[in-house]
Write a structure and sequence with these properties.
The protein is an alpha+beta fold and 495 residues long. It is 25% helix and 16% strand. The chain folds into two domains: 158 residues, Pseudouridine synthase I, catalytic domain, N-terminal subdomain (Alpha-Beta Plaits, 2-Layer Sandwich), CATH 3.30.70.580; 211 residues, Alpha-Beta Plaits (2-Layer Sandwich). The chain is built from twelve helices and eleven strands. Pfam families: PseudoU_synth_1. Belongs to the tRNA pseudouridine synthase TruA family.
């Protein structure tokens, strides 16, 4: 680099301003004013109903569901909706209702999904003569590495309908839009669309689902896995789960019966190489925060603070129809008609793994043409649009970070001794809990609840009955909401 001062360094402030003004006057506009751009006519294009399967890392979002009020982090639905709008697959003017948007399962802030599904009506290219655009081949990493963040960098290029007419027809993608590539090119890397399927007009991502499979990852350190599995086995079947969920009076639920098909504790990796375990919980449907409540109780059982039969008591809500013991020789469980006070498990390790449908209702496909043959050279475009490659790269970063965290722990352990291990209580090799000790009860993902005195669940204070909670909402917040809606409808009618 030259050490000589540039010509502008000797200019006065006024001269610099004059020069900048001259340059601005000669600068060509980079984009046509929005008011002069041609309006995209959605009515001129056919639509079809599809299902989209996608993944997301919940740590970066304020839950799945779109919120009308501002949130500290974006919601997954809001980001995905924006991507569908900017790729001109749905009409923003009609909103979620206009495209028939339905989701399979709601996940809260911090909760992730590997197989979430939505169904909706989108623009289709079938039956149209189309011209391929360069944007369809664009690599989002070459343009803007974080997709929808910033000013949605790719969107200024959407002047023509993106198509794939030049691509040879394949069994998976016959002259249809490349939905997966189009969306992933503008979505942030924390959300990935992995498959799509044509579906019938009556298909519902929510009501057509046969079962949902959730996974909750946890460390088995200090836990009695056999006792936890005993407790999990008692969940299987159709039961009233009002004491194992969070009540949402705005929904005015009066029945809390849900059917659990399977509840198993398994090594997180089939080859046994992982030090983590996972609760695989499969059910036809789930209540609000049901999995996190179940996992919180399983942690209490695993530490031996609770007996597995506590599950029987929490499911025993009706004195008129008492629940029998699950195991021979156990006493009849106590009737608990309303939920005891306890903290649910951390959301970070929870993942919606699969939403299952009948094979005759969905046919998952990638729609991006055939995969390269084994041993074939991969082009820059192949790697840019290869989902496995991009997600594998994220996994490798996580593996490296985990190894680094383990070394940080080793460095600390050289100077600081680990705290005494009290869990599982009274287990061989575990020291007894001395009087006055503060217990760190696990809640998942390294979080704990500390307390010097443990109160069994059946002895804790309980919340109000469901009927009372619903009535209080109806006469309070619910009544005010209805009043505001009525006033808004009247104002709309006058206008």
């Amino acid at each position: 680099m030259s050490s000589h001062p540039s010509a502008y360094e000797s200019w006065t402030r006024e001269a610099l301003i004059t020069r900048l003004s001259q340059l601005e006057s000669h600068r060509k506009p980079t984009a046509e004013p929005l008011c002069k751009r041609k309006v995209f006519d959605f009515s001129a294009h056919p639509r079809r109903k599809i299902a989209l399967k996608f993944t997301y890392n919940g740590a970066d979002y304020s839950g799945l569901e779109f919120q009308k009020t501002p949130t500290t982090l974006p919601t997954v639905e809001a980001v995905l909706f924006d991507a569908l709008v900017h790729t001109r697959l749905i009409d923003p003017a009609t909103g979620f209702e206009g495209c028939g948007w339905e989701k399979c399962g709601r996940t809260d802030r911090g909760v992730s999904a590997a197989g979430q599904v939505i169904s909706l009506w989108v623009r289709s290219a079938l039956g149209q003569a189309r011209v391929r655009t360069s944007l369809e081949d664009a690599n989002v990493m070459d343009v803007h590495p974080t997709g929808l963040e910033g000013d949605l960098a790719l969107m200024g290029e959407w002047d023509e309908t993106p198509t794939n007419a030049a691509r040879p027809a394949t069994p998976q993608a016959t002259n249809e839009l490349r939905y997966i590539t189009l969306l992933n090119n503008v979505l942030p890397p924390t959300i990935r669309v992995i498959a799509w399927s044509p579906v019938g007009p009556d298909f519902s991502a929510r009501f057509s689902c046969r079962y949902r499979h959730y996974k909750y990852f946890f460390s088995p350190e200090g836990l009695d896995l056999a006792a936890m599995q005993d407790a999990a086995d008692r969940l299987v079947g159709e039961h009233d789960f009002r004491n194992l969920c969070k009540l949402d009076p705005s929904k005015q639920l009066t029945t809390f019966a849900r059917k659990i098909l399977s509840a198993r504790l398994n090594p997180a990796q089939a080859d046994g190489a992982s030090t983590l375990y996972v609760l695989d919980l499969i059910g036809t449907a789930f209540l609000y925060n049901q999995v996190r409540h179940i996992m919180a109780v399983l942690f209490l059982v695993g530490t031996k603070l609770e007996h597995p039969s506590v599950i029987d008591a929490l499911l025993n809500v009706d004195a008129a129809q008492p629940r029998a013991p699950s195991r021979p020789g156990e006493p009849f469980p106590q009737v608990i008609p309303s939920k005891p006070e306890y903290q649910m498990a951390d959301p970070l390790p929870l993942m919606l793994w699969e939403c299952a449908y009948d094979k005759d209702t969905v046919s998952w496909r990638t729609g991006d043409g055939p995969l390269p043959t084994e041993g074939a050279a991969l082009s820059h475009r192949d790697l840019s649009n290869n989902l496995y490659h991009s997600v594998h790269a994220l996994h490798q970063r996580s593996v490296v970070q985990t190894a680094m965290d383990a070394h940080f722990l080793r460095a600390v352990a050289a100077y600081h001794a680990p705290p005494p291990q009290y869990f599982p209580i009274d287990a061989p090799g575990v020291q007894p809990v001395p009087s006055g000790s503060v217990l760190s009860i696990p809640l998942g993902a390294g979080t704990v609840r500390r307390g010097a005195r443990y109160v069994p669940l059946v002895e804790r204070p309980r919340g109000d009955l469901v009927e009372a909670v619903n009535e209080r909402w109806r006469t309070g917040k619910g009544a005010r909401q209805m009043e505001r809606k009525a006033l808004a409808a009247q104002a709309s009618g006058r206008s």
